[in-house]
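Retry 2 of 3 after timeout on previous attempt. Resubmitting C-alpha cells to design endpoint.
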C-alpha cells in the first residue's frame, strides 16, 4: 500500500515537515513536502493519488481555508490536520468541515501510523471505485476486458457492438462464470445510452416484496430501479428467479413503454443456464421471455476458447504476482496441456481463482497445475483433466504462448528470440503472423 499512494505534507515550518517526511519515508511511504497551502494547490487535483497532512496555523492561506479548498475540489480526499495544544477548538472545527482527523503536537508515532494507514486505505478504496466507474462507462475499456483472440471471442465483441447500437431489449444467457455481467455493461457502454444510468437488480438476492419495491417502488429513500434507469439501462440479473407476480407486472411495464413513440426503457436480462433438460422459456413466462429475448447474446464457455485459456491464465498470474509482491510461475508444456484439457465448469471465474492460487502456491515453494486442478479446483478429477482436445490445438496454443513469453522476456529482440528458440528468421516471422503477434507490442 505504501508504494501505491502519496502523502503530501503541508507546513510552513521546515523542521516539522521534514521530520514528518523523513519518518514516513523510513516507514516506506512516498512523500512530498510543501511550505504553503498555495504551493500545494498547484499540484493537487481531484484525482490526487494520496492523502494530505496539513498544519492548521500557517501564514497566507491557513489550514482551515486550505481544507475548504480541498473539500470543494474533492470531498473524499482525506486531510489530516496538525494542531498545537492551544488549537484543539480549531481542529474540532476542521473536523466539522470535513477533515479526516487531526494530530496533536507532539506526535505519537504509533498513533500517526495507525491514522495514516486508515486514511490511505480509505483513499485507495475511493480511487479504485472511481476507476471502476470510469471503466464501466467506457465501451472500449470493457471490450478490452473481454480478453482473448479466439474466433468465438472476436465474434462476441462484434456482436456486442452490433446489438449495442440496436437499442432494444437483450437477453444475455450462458454458463456461470463466462462474464455475462461484463457483457451487459459493455452493451450499455458501447451504445447510445453510454453515460446514462446503468441500474442492476439481482432477482435472486431479495424476497418477493423487497424485489418488487426495488424494481417498481415505492422506495423509502430514492427512486425505484425502473424510474432511475429510464433513458439508460435496467439490468435484471438471474431473471430465472423472478417471481410470477413480478413477471406479470414487468410485462405490463414493457407493454406501456414499448408501445410508446420513443421508449426510454431498455432492459438487459441476464440468465444462467436452467437445470438440465429445462429451457429458460419453461422457467420464465413465454410472453416475457420473447419480449426480453428479441435479441440474444451468449458468451462462449472457456473450454471452447482454445489458446485464450493460456493468455488469460498468464495475464492473471502477472496481476496476482504484482498484488502479492512476488514472482509468478512460468507455464511449462505440461502445465499448458493440463490447462487446455480441463473442462472448466466454472469458466473464467474458476480460471482466475486458479491463477491466484498458483501464485500463492509458487510463493510458498511448491507449484503444480495438476494439483490445483484436481485438489479443490472446482469439481475436476484427474480423469477429467486427462481427457480433452485435439493434440494439434494444444501444440499450437503452446507454441504461441512460448513465442509470446520469449518475445516479452527479450523485449522484442528478434535475434535473441531466434537464438533461444533455434528458429530461422522466416519461420519465426511466419509463426508470429499466424498467431497474430507483432514485434512492436514487446518493445519498451
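Retry 2 succeeded. Sequence:
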Amino acid at each position: 500500500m505504501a508504494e501505491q499512494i502519496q502523502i503530501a505534507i503541508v507546513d510552513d515550518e521546515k523542521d516539522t515537515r521534514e521530520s514528518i517526511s523523513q519518518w514516513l519515508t523510513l516507514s516506506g511511504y512516498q512523500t512530498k513536502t510543501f511550505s504553503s497551502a498555495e504551493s500545494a494547490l498547484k499540484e493537487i487535483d481531484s484525482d490526487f493519488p494520496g492523502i494530505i497532512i496539513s498544519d492548521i496555523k500557517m501564514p497566507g492561506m491557513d489550514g482551515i481555508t486550505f481544507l475548504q479548498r480541498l473539500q470543494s475540489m474533492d470531498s473524499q480526499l482525506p486531510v489530516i490536520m496538525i494542531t498545537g495544544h492551544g488549537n484543539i477548538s480549531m481542529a474540532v472545527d476542521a473536523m466539522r468541515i470535513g477533515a479526516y482527523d487531526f494530530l496533536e503536537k507532539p506526535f505519537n508515532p504509533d498513533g500517526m501510523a495507525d491514522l495514516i494507514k486508515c486514511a490511505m486505505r480509505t483513499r485507495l478504496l475511493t480511487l479504485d471505485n472511481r476507476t471502476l466507474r470510469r471503466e464501466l462507462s467506457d465501451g472500449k475499456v470493457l471490450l478490452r476486458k473481454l480478453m482473448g483472440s479466439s474466433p468465438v471471442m472476436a465474434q462476441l465483441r462484434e456482436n456486442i457492438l452490433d446489438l449495442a447500437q440496436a437499442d432494444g431489449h437483450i437477453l444475455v444467457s450462458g454458463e456461470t462464470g463466462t462474464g455475462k455481467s461484463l457483457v451487459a455493461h459493455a452493451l450499455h457502454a458501447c451504445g447510445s445510452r453510454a453515460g446514462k444510468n446503468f441500474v442492476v437488480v439481482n432477482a435472486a438476492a431479495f424476497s418477493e416484496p423487497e424485489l418488487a419495491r426495488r424494481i417498481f417502488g415505492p422506495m423509502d429513500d430514492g427512486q425505484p430501479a425502473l424510474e432511475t434507469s429510464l433513458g439508460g439501462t435496467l439490468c435484471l440479473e438471474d431473471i430465472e428467479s423472478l417471481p410470477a407476480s413480478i413477471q406479470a407486472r414487468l410485462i405490463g411495464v414493457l407493454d406501456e413503454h414499448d408501445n410508446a413513440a420513443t421508449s426510454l426503457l431498455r432492459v438487459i436480462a441476464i440468465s444462467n443456464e436452467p437445470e438440465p433438460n429445462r429451457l429458460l422459456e419453461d422457467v420464465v413466462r413465454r410472453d416475457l421471455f420473447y419480449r426480453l429475448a428479441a435479441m440474444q447474446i451468449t458468451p462462449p464457455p472457456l473450454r471452447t476458447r482454445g489458446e485464450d485459456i493460456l493468455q488469460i491464465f498468464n495475464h492473471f498470474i502477472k496481476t496476482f504476482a504484482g498484488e502479492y509482491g512476488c514472482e509468478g510461475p512460468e507455464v511449462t508444456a505440461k502445465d499448458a496441456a493440463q490447462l487446455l484439457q480441463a473442462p472448466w465448469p466454472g469458466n473464467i471465474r474458476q480460471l482466475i481463482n486458479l491463477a491466484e492460487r498458483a501464485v500463492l502456491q509458487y510463493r510458498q515453494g511448491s507449484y503444480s497445475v495438476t494439483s490445483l486442478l484436481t485438489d479443490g479446483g472446482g469439481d475436476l478429477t484427474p480423469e477429467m483433466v486427462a481427457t480433452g482436445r485435439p493434440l494439434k490445438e494444444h501444440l499450437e496454443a503452446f507454441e504461441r504462448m512460448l513465442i509470446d513469453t520469449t518475445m516479452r522476456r527479450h523485449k522484442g529482440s528478434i535475434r535473441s528470440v531466434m537464438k533461444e528458440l533455434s528458429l530461422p528468421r522466416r519461420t519465426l516471422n511466419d509463426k508470429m503472423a499466424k498467431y497474430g503477434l507483432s514485434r512492436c507490442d514487446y518493445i519498451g
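Attempt log closed. The chain is about 50% helix and 10% strand.
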